[in-house]
Each structure stands twice: as C-alpha cells, then as structure tokens.
C-alpha cells in the first residue's frame, strides 16, 4: 500500500563510487558527462523510492559544477525529494568528493532534477505528499516552487510567437555579442 505522505528521510538515497581513470576527460579530471549519468541514476532511485513506481526524467533544472573531481577520489552523492507535485518530484542532489588518503572532502556539485512517476502503461500517476519537518525542508520546498514559477515565466517570456527582437538589441552593448542583420 502506498502511503499518502512520506518524510524526506524515507526516500533519501546515498551512493558512493571511486573515480577511475576510465571516468576522466582529456584534462585528467572526471568527465562531467559521467557525473551527469550518476546524477540521473540517483535521481531515478530517489524518486522511485518515494513514489514506489517507475520514474522518468522530465528535466534537469540545475547542475552547478563547483569544483573538479580527481581520479582516485571517492564521490558520494546524496539525493532527497525537495518538492512533490501531483506526479512530479524535484530531487535535490549534493555531490562531494573525498581524498581517501587525507579524508578531506569538497562540495563538487549541486543539482535539481525533476522526475515524473509513471505506471506500467506510461501514464503519469499520483505520488505521495511530502512531510516537511525542518526549516531546511521548508526552504528547499519553497526554492523548488520558485524555480518552477521562474521556468514557466521563462518559457512564456521568450515564446517565438510573441518575441520582439528589437526589445533586446541593447544586449550587444552589455555582452560579448554583435548583431548583424
């Protein structure tokens, strides 16, 4: 039986993986694409644990790479449900890398991925609500709500049917761009 509401702790997922040379790019750092793959996997696990059903990635809302990850470091990802809608969930993920020899840890990435719960026929299904217990829980939920509104506004503001490019010609004075028509 699926619960009507769940605590954040009930759905949290933590994974750790040692970074190998095969995960690196040409500069000897761990490839961002490899980290993106791990982010998607843990988001799926967290969302599926919360919803108790199959989930799909709807959008990658933010991925902030803060610090490079080195070969030989132990990467730990911590995922939590930050927000729930009817069938959607925003999964917040914190990525830390640890130098095993010293125990030194660094915050390398923060991400927010929207997942949608689906049934066996691919139809969206209702997810359990979220029980918020702490100020951090409330802050993360509110921040997810704000990102949702901003995303909707961004889509509407720059819709191709009502976009007027003349209103944005000043951008060539502000940024590294030259407009030629």
Automatic annotation (TrEMBL):
Pfam families: 4HBT
Enzyme category, top tier: hydrolase
Domain HotDog ACOT-type: 9-121
The keyword Hydrolase appears for this protein: yes
Residue stretches spanning the membrane: none
Domain of life of the native organism: Bacteria
Keywords: Hydrolase
UniProt GO MF annotations: fatty acyl-CoA hydrolase activity
EC number annotated for this UniProt entry: 3.1.2.20
Family per similarity comment: Belongs to the acyl coenzyme A hydrolase family.
PANTHER family according to UniProt: ACYL COENZYME A THIOESTER HYDROLASE, PROTEIN VDLD
Protein name, per record: Acyl-CoA thioesterase
Originating species: Autumnicola musiva
